[in-house]
Amino acid sequence: MLGAHDSTRDAGRAQRWAARLAWPLLGIVISLGLWALAARYISDVEVIRAAFAPQAGLKALVHLLGSGELWPHISTSLQRIAIALLLAMAIGVPLGLCLGLSPLFARISGPTFQFLRMVSPLSWMPLAVMALGVGEAPVVFLLSFATVWPIMLNTAAGVAALDPAWMRLAQSLSATRWETIARVVLPGCISHILTGFRLAVGIGWIVLVPAEMLGVSSGMGYFVLDTRDRLAYDELMAGIVVIGGLGFALDWLARTISSRWTQRGKQG
């Protein structure tokens, strides 16, 4: 009886996994079909149509990964986004705490922050190059500028959502300002901070590619620009696939960290 029960349970688990994988696989098949259809009508030149076809792009992807040509660009892009996110966290979280804890600071700085937030990060490219020169610094600046806002605003929202009773309890225990922030405010709004971080990852990855077309010699943005100049359209499509795959993986990682922290908080 136990063996039959275990077999039924394993079969049900296998069916659930199959159902969970079936829809994403169907989406991938449909996407490849649309890709192939679009490649047929992208140009009247047969060579260009063949270069944009899925089989050409995927073949180029396997070659680029196997030869190691693409890995330095991937590594450089991931390093840049990591540095930018660390800077955005170091700036955005304290600013968000100030906005949430100080109504006066929020009234003074709020309009300025909202104005700057609505300026496209890419519009700062010329000024970033003039001020920081050509190289890593302007790219990291643009990424940090793009990613700081969701972290800052979500931190402020987390502070606003805190239970006022927690703050009154900290005051009744004669906690200092820093003790209140470290032991009450930050733990209470960490889920909002992680949500802002996830949003920042998505925004930063989108801005990364055009930012890396700014006078650097490595990175996925540079790789896409270089393939265009070399008319290597199959490699260009391979680069686009890699950019999408890496962005998906980064978002999945940020989402997993956020959900696990939330579950841990509920269990605690």
How would you concisely characterize the structure shown here?
By secondary structure, the protein is mostly helical. The protein has eleven helices and no strands. Helix 10 packs antiparallel against helix 11 (233-267).
Describe the structure.
The chain contains eleven helices and no strands. The protein has two domains: 2-41; 65-267, Orthogonal Bundle (MetI-like fold). The longest helix has 40 residues, at 2-41. 85% of the residues lie in helices and 0% in strands. The chain has helices at 2-41, 46-52, 54-67, 71-101, 103-117, 125-132, 136-160, 164-172, 177-211, 220-229, 233-267. It is globular and about 75 Å long. It is found in: Cell membrane.
Keywords:
single chain; 268 residues; mainly alpha; MetI-like fold; 2 domains; 11 helices; 85% helix; globular; MetI-like_sf
Net shape: globular
Q: Which runs of at least 5 residues are low in confidence (pLDDT < 50)? A: none
CATH class of the largest domain: Mainly Alpha
Number of strands: 0
State the secondary-structure class.
Answer: mainly alpha
Domain tally: 2
The percent of residues in helical segments reads over 70%
Pfam family, one: BPD_transp_1
Main location: membrane
Transmembrane segments: 21-42, 81-106, 115-134, 140-162, 199-224, 236-254
Protein name: ABC transporter permease
